[in-house]
Amino acid sequence: MPATRSFLTSALIIAAGLASTIALTIVTQVSMLMSQPGWKLSNFRGYFAGDQLSYFAIVINGSQGRFAAVEPFTETGTINYPHLYYSLLGAVSYVTGVTPAATWSVVGICFIVLLTVSVSIAAVLMTRNRWFAFVGPIPLVIGTLSTFISGTWMTLLDSHAVLWGPFAVLFTLNGEAASLSVAGVALLAVLVLAVRAPSTRVWLIVGIAAAAVVGLLGNVQTYAFLTSVYVLCYTVAAFGLSRRPRRSLIALSGGLVVALFFVGPLVAPALGQLATLTLGLVPAIPGLILVLVRTRGLLAIPAVALALAASPQIIGTYLATKAGDPFLAYRVASSKNLGVPLHLGLLCAMVLLVLLAYIAVVGFRRRDVFLRSYPIAIVTVWFVVAGNDSWGANQEPYRFWIDMFVFTAVTSVPLFGYAAYLVLRNRPEITRKGWAVRIVATVLPVALIGVSLVDWSSFYRYGETEVIGLSFQSERQRAASEAVAAADAMVLTDPCLDPLHFKANTGAAIVYYNGGMAWPADKPAILGLLRLRNEGVLPSQAVLQNADVNWVITDDSCAVDWAEDGSGYLERVSSGSYAEAGGTVTLTLWRVNEN
């Protein structure tokens, strides 16, 4: 009876911890928006909306049954940007009938909840202590101390580079947020196995599954995929080198890290920057070979699973690059002035570095191979990927820094709990002074996490006032959908109709593109039309037809009157109207007549 009661008590505590984790995760992601008038879960978050609405265009197309790998606005050309997640969201919306915006919000939040619940479960499994079921939300709110460094919740760098905590990067609910969440779950599964040391069969099954999941992310979001691959490779290598230390191999790995910063810039011009990015994995090779030998080749099976899962995107990108795809060439060349200054990188990572230091000290003092090797692996990966501009790759180092912050927070919290559990568990031989030292050493990182919450508090206030919920169900948007319904090809919007919002609302093919995501088939023609539109000028009949644009939509409340300007070649087809304070506004669809 006592054993049954103890089991029920533990189950109830764990259930309460997981429920609390889910509730607090939703609070960190949603609560700041709930105070906004008319807020609904189906509202799209106006948070750095330019890029998010560009990704959302893929979802919109999918929700209407269009899944072709084309530039999503004009629906011409091709898209080499990893977009599996957005196609998946579009398919969910298409099958269920749920609006694309609601699908984006609900599915995105579910992925983040999955991550935090996994943190709680991992902490319980590592420590075998039921109370650790409550720690899941902690990684989401750990800050970069930017409030003290920069006066706000983020630290701005050169160009558009920025450093911020998990709460900010996951708040977009985009493919990166989903990828970081899924990769975090996979990494946690591997860490639990490392701590609990199960049978070879369990290792192999979970290892293959985790590797395949990480590989699949290559088709979802490039930086989360590459960062998680780096973490897996360096962690396995560090564990292999630490389990039965061989000084020669350890020295070789360390030397390869140093050599990377000298050799990388020399070979990058010949290899290309994307290929150079893989050079950062070379220092892990000695440790990986060692583990491969010790496992009698079994390590190769998860590696193959990862490669196969990632192969569609890798092969597609390779072939497109080989064919001289101009968009990919632009993407590679456009990553400039996005580095992370060393002093800012260290300051903003201070909270997590203290956690890692605690874990490492416990690992060395207790001769725990994993606890001492994992912090070394994480710090090395962070240094390498966030400094890739210094060794020739130069591919958005700040993005790698942010992703490493997320992965480090997600994995360090349960590992810190496990290390603290080992340090503080009752041992009669420990003196009072020894207990005091252990308690102070354990409380310090916890206190630092508490201090860093000021960043999340500032972000919460920002969300209340600056993140506007975009609704695609207003009367104006209804009128736009009615007006454009007759269009069967690309539409040019007048200066008063925002093309991003118009696409999100109607799903019509429009004259617009995001230069960092995909290019249309005839980029110069589309660019020329956009330039004229932004100047308020209606393109001529010939210019429109040369760009294969046969439709124009206008807003009669606009200061420019395209209906009058194109009276010689625009034919009215349909319209939609709505009432506002100044009277009735009509949106009109026009056909461009042929010569």
Quick structural summary:
63% of the residues lie in helices and 7% in strands. With 595 residues, the protein is α+β, with helices and mostly antiparallel strands.
Descriptive report:
There is one protein chain. The chain has 595 residues and is of the alpha+beta class. Helices cover 63% and strands 7% of the residues. A four-stranded mixed sheet has the order 5-6-8-7. The chain is globular, with a radius of gyration of 27 Å. The N and C termini lie far apart (90 Å).
Note the gap between the termini.
Answer: 90 Å
How many separate domains?
3
Radius of gyration: 27 Å
Whole-number mean pLDDT? 91
Shape, principal axes of CA atoms: globular
The strand line-up of the biggest sheet is: 5-6-8-7
| Count of β-strands | 8
Main sheet properties: 4 strands, mixed
Beta-strand share of residues: 5-15%
The number of helices is 25
Low-confidence stretches: none
User: Helix- and strand-based class?
Assistant: alpha+beta
What's the helical proportion of residues? 55-70%
Question: How are the secondary structure elements laid out?
Answer:
Elements: H1 2-30, E1 44-46, H2 49-63, H3 84-96, H4 100-127, H5 138-141, H6 146-149, E2 155-156, E3 162-163, H7 166-169, H8 175-196, H9 200-216, H10 222-243, H11 247-271, H12 273-277, H13 285-294, H14 300-322, H15 326-333, H16 342-348, H17 350-365, H18 369-386, H19 397-424, H20 432-466, E4 468-470, H21 475-484, E5 491-493, H22 499-506, H23 523-534, H24 541-546, E6 551-555, H25 562-565, E7 570-580, E8 583-592
Parallel strand pairs: 5-6
Antiparallel strand pairs: 1-4, 2-3, 6-8, 7-8
Helix pairs in contact: 1-4, 2-3, 2-22, 3-4, 4-8, 4-19, 8-9, 8-10, 8-19, 9-14, 10-13, 10-18, 10-19, 17-18, 17-19, 17-20, 18-19
